[in-house]
Amino acid sequence: MRDRLRHLHQVQTDSEGFSTVELDSLSEQGPAGPHPDQEVDAVLQHAQEIRLEIQRIQHDISELKDVNYLALNQTSYPSVTKRDSSAVGADIKRRGEAVLQQLHKMNATREDLEARRGGSDPTARIARTQYQCLSNALHEVMFSYSDTEMSHREACKRQIQRHFEVVGRDVGEEELEDMIESGQWNVFGVQVEGRTAQSALLQIESRHKELLELERRIQAIQELFLDVALLTEEQGVAVENIQKNVQTTQASVQEGITQLERAAETDKNNPFKKLFCGCFPCYYN
């Protein structure tokens, strides 16, 4: 009776809801590895930091669209938009590279969790899911930036063609591309008169300068585009491997069930068991 009372006293919970037995055992064990909940919190916090940085890239892309619109419409930059397109593009490149580096770290964490706990562990699955979702998010936002730059390039080309029409020149798509690449504008050697024609020539020069800056931005970030594309391609291979493993596991389980059913049927038809059933009725069922 005394031993029972001592045991009840040990398992009595304190005001915080923890068992004194659990606290004593933890103190005796000393410092241990990270608690699963702590590792989950660390994974989710890291994912949230990456997600916020991707949102900042989206904000930069929205600002770039506004700056490009103002440039095409000859509107001066408002006080809230003090950066030009090159400055915004540089920030997008910097943030994209930082996010890519953080995703590599998250992938290393995922691999460590799967190595220590197995791929079916909840924390490992959370890390894997976060990594896949954020990798896809970075892919989408970076190619949204690429689409924004390419759309602006086409808008500049259309505006250049309209200005060529003002000075009496019809320029085709291929000829315009050659002029953009070479920087040789044949129309500049033609004597033009009138304020409208002179303004058109100035606009052609301005758009050409803008296209050159755009090309430099694209070339500077081209390596990042390739890294992001490779990242999502690796994700596709990983997903395919997971699907194959799941299908293999399902096939193995189904085969095991079939074998169990056959074994049960064979056991039921066992002649020795039928022989003993007459002597021992308890085996009949």
From TrEMBL:
Superkingdom of origin: Eukaryota
SUPFAM superfamilies: t-snare proteins (SSF47661)
Pfam family, one: Syntaxin
Keywords: Coiled coil
Residue stretches making up the T-SNARE coiled-coil homology domain: 201-263
GO molecular function: SNAP receptor activity; SNARE binding
Signal peptide, first to last residue: none
CC per GO annotation: presynaptic active zone membrane; SNARE complex; synaptic vesicle
GO biological process, one term: vesicle docking
PROSITE patterns referenced in this protein's UniProt entry, alphabetically: T_SNARE
PANTHER family listed in its UniProt record: SYNTAXIN (PTHR19957), SYNTAXIN 11B, TANDEM DUPLICATE 1-RELATED (PTHR19957:SF136)
Family: Belongs to the syntaxin family.
Protein name from the UniProt record: Syntaxin-11-like
